[in-house]
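Input/output pair, single chain:
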Amino acid sequence: MNTFRINKMLTATMCVVVLMLGCTDTDPKESASQSNNTKPEQTNIKIDQLAWAHNIIKQINTELENNPSAAGGKTYYVCDTGNDENTGLSESSPFRSYEKAMSMFTTISGGDSVLFCRGGQFPVTTAKKISNQNCSVSSVCTLGDYGNEQADKPLIIAHTQSSLLSFYGPGNKPITGGYVIKNISLTSTTNKGAGVFIYDRVSNLLLDNLHIQGFDIGLQIAAKVVDKVTLKNSVIMNNASQGTLGACSNCLFENNYFENNGSGLRDHNIYLGSIGGIVENMVVKGNTLYKSSMKDGKCDGVSLVAHGKFEGLEIENNLVKEDAGKVNQTCYGISVDPGYAYEEYFKDVVIRGNTLLNVGGNAIGCASCDGALIENNTIIDEGSVLVHGISVPVRTEDSVKSKNITIRNNKILLTKNWNPTSGVRVGGFHPMSAENNDIYLADYPLSECVRGSDKNIDVKDASNTCKKTVSASTVQGLVQALLNDSYKETPVQETPVQETPVQETPVQETLGSQASTENELLTSSIQRNPLQESVSDNRFVSTTYKAGSLFSISKKASTNSAPVKSVAPNKTCQVYARGRCMM
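Output:
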């Protein structure tokens, strides 16, 4: 029995244990206690089980991505130089339109592909819904690209208010799934609809290396019978309200870049919201979030928020960043808390290894959390706006009161000196643990490194390091020291690779290791399109450093190519998802 089948059996076993929630062909029902908004049984966090479940999810996604097409699978080609009357079966006889491509994609056999030509642009006047019962995990249907790898990704441009790629499964048929969507740019001229809309009864969907821009919502998951969706290696930016909206069981957001999504208090770069049921084993990992919900030049909304009912939520190794001082107090970094009119809770939450730079109000927060581990995060504020580093509870709780909370091994630097600031703030009805945290504050009488109230009035632990030494003259040295300490990873020596399509010399790190530049930067697919705000290549280079680390860039002269335009000499570069570096 192959690995994938074993994983499917394990996943099926897990689903049986939770009464087949999310694994049946009918809508999962809430238990009587949940429908009556009564308090669920509270248990200790199960970190080992979480890691085991997440490893299975990742393996299933890998199998989905790498599974070969079925024997004899056909490839249909689409290019803006083609004709919809063509056969579409060769690059020399492609279809022409988005509408024809989507019509084919909804009827192809499992293992078939529909590919758009790189460098092509495909206007959309009538959006198409996607549902194909022929596709499956073992016989994947692919929507992707072909052609010159130096050319831009295919660009699909919506002139409609509808969502561009809408996935759904009919209620009278099995759940649809087994889709791979990769290497495509989705843009809108209307700021309406969603770039990708996952309505209901969809499973095993991989979204890889997409660029989603100009919609109301970048990615929307709108129903509870959706699971095993992976969004990775993608750029989601300049969408009117939300970067992503919704959540799903056994789903993964990994190594994506979010910027400038939303424009007010209720908008977010990532908005995880459960719809009706319980979301299990959701992972948000290795992403970069920047300029969340900008209003009058300042971040106004939480960058990464979760509302609803979650069991097994992991938020790990993300970089949440804003420009120093360009935030309002409502610009929290990561907040897992109740936000709806009905009862909410969050069981077995892990917030680990994230870096939060210059957010406002509160960097990391949790409320109605039954079992939470908040560890190894780095929180830095250079703009004297951030009041609290970590807060539990961060807001008024529902009937589930936060318990089994461990806050440890975090590094927190706050510069605000006119409010009762605190590195860690805990309260509520149950004792919590705050240990081995390194906290740096301004020397101000009302500031406290660890502030306790209610059942946590005596939470202070001798293992925490508390230093009130932050001043204008020391802050930059402390910032650099904390970042260096958090990212002490030696880069791997690599062979430089020239960036395309512009010929450039390799970028070299001052620490002596060389950084390779990938053939296609995250934003190359639309940077020359006049319909969108461009994303210039000069903001992105590559490095082997982890997300969140900093290194200096130098420019090298060359006798056979133009000077490097990607970076300016002697500049500090901020590394984000997949080792890419943003100036």
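The longest strand covers residues 309-316. The first helix runs from residue 3 to 17.
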